[in-house]
From TrEMBL:
SUPFAM superfamilies: ISP domain, Metallo-hydrolase/oxidoreductase. PROSITE patterns: RIESKE (PS51296). Keywords: 2Fe-2S, Iron, Iron-sulfur, Metal-binding. The keyword Iron applies. Residues 461-501 form the Rieske domain. The lineage of its organism: Bacteria, Bacillati, Actinomycetota, Actinomycetes, Micromonosporales. This is Rieske 2Fe-2S domain-containing protein. It comes from the Bacteria.
Amino acid sequence: MRVTGTGHASMRIDTAAGSILCDPWVNPAYFASWFPFPDNSLLDWETLGQVDYLYVSHLHRDHFDAKQLRDHVSKDATVLLPEFPTSEMEDELRELGFTKFLKAPNEQVVDLPGGLKIMIQALTSPTDGPIGDSSLWVEYDGVRLLNQNDARPTDLTVFAELGHVHAHLLQFSGAIWYPMVYELPQAAKTAFGKQKRDRQFDRTWRYIDDLKADHVFPIAGPPCFLDDALWQFNDIHGDEGNIFPDQSVFLAEYAKVGGTNGIVLLPGSVAEITTEGATTTHPVPVEEFFADKVAHLEEMRERKRPVIEAEKASWRHPEVDVLGEMKRRIEPLLDESIYLAKGVGGPVRFDLVGYDGESVESIVVDFPGKEVRPYADEKVRYRFRTERALIEHLLHIGEVDWVNSLFLSCRFSAARIGQYNEFVYAFFKCLSEERLQYAEGWYDEHERAVDAEDITLDGWVVQRRCPHLKADLSRFGIVEGEQLTCQLHGWRFDLSSGRCLTSVGHKIRAHRADEQTPAPAGEALS
């Protein structure tokens, strides 16, 4: 099995029974804030795109690059389609010209012609990507590969049970806006960033230990930021709180925990994988490339500057009545929302900075009041400050996912009162009736489900599954004093009260092992 690195989470997998192109991302994403690093735009995409199969893991724009898919991937390719709860990915791919689809039943091995086997695990929580994320398992002639990209399953048992894996490709770097955009003192940002960076690596080590593959390939990050306004987010400034470490940092950190089987794929690197080992060739020496990282970034910045400026020129739409359009689009969804609106629990404010860089229009999405209106000097739980032009553009194009556009762009600042609230972002990811109804149904089912199984951790009896996204706390739970941390997503709980310290809701059932069992689960969670 040959794996050619094509940048970020993208790769081409070649076997004698066929070739698979995964997640080809080349063009800037999220308001031209994210670019692949190392740069992959100079690869021979005309050749790379002539494949038998296409696999796109999810709709995040650093995985689903519509322009690249339209212009450089063969429309004769059969799309290996994850079993997602909505048809959005298939619909978008059909609009790009793809006509052949293999809808892979979730977590079931599919036999393809010539002895090639694949299995796709689809994750379908509203917090998994834009309504879904997935991983791809491939087997040919006894060689097995898992492309986990940036999916976060609760465990990898379903893949391990299919046989020993020889190549494990997974995310290790950040892909979020926290804590950089928050209006906090720099010392606090650094501290929170360091915590997140450490959690990212810890989660990666756990996945690696789960699968125990022969070779580990760090992929799906980091992006690089080439706009002057975002340049500080690149991990080149000696900031220990930067959440975007690169592949060379991964190798160094992996070595600290005993990892010796890591392999970096630069764009154009080729790994030949067998049951006996892996041989890798690179277009340039890996250590030499990352030693010159700043120079590479500076050269990319100058080369991509016209691309960024052209994107910026397309954002302004002064003809859009922002307040009126937000009312028209969002108020019907507020009327239909039960769980998300209750979860947000208060007004969310958008401060929109005008073209002059000074004037500000403040608009409130009032979740309890079910309306969008001008700000009225009240306290708000969340406040976002961004350029008016960005919101104009989202409304102009009818964007249904402001997370997969505005928030991931990092082109905003944020402030909040109290804990992180996942429902805020879940709602702004679901600005269509189809998405909203799915999310409402998922939270309804999730709230009604009771986890009856308990485990004991360091003197505490706790429910086995994390209240957040059902991670197995026997594997991911860490107890320190009276606090439990789920290492999969970093959520923390106060065990004495059951209260979630990370976000609203999500109470956990727990009591000391030497104390009497508390009330039944249904009462305890009410």
